[in-house]
Amino acid sequence: MTQTIMTETRMRTAKFGLGAVVRHRIYPFRGIVFDVDPVFDNTEEWWLAIPEEVRPRKDQPFYHLLAENAESEYVAYVSEQNLVPDTSGEPLRHAGIAEVFQKDAEGRYRMRERVAN
Predict the structure, then answer these.
(1) What is the spatial distance between Cα 82 and Cα 80, in angstroms, rounded to a whole number?
(2) What InterPro entries does its record include (predicted)?
């Protein structure tokens, strides 16, 4: 006799959308979301390099950010549990923002239209 095991598939909705301005809840950096992975999609080596006591769960959205801190601009990969909305209203300075986003009339960041080659 064959047994069928039903598993529950959980649909998760990302808390932050493309163009959302966020900050890390622990570390002093902020950025703008330019891509979202529904679950962890980086290397095991990258994940294991995070200290175990602060290592995030893999079963949550992970965000690609054009990030900045007081010293530099970079791309960050951050779990949803470690992000909060940035409501400071301070402008972002990351050089890559103008390539990917434009501000709308309300001051929100919107993805630029892409033209295929």
Answers:
(1) 5
(2) Hemimethylated_DNA-bd_dom, Hemimethylated_DNA-bd_sf
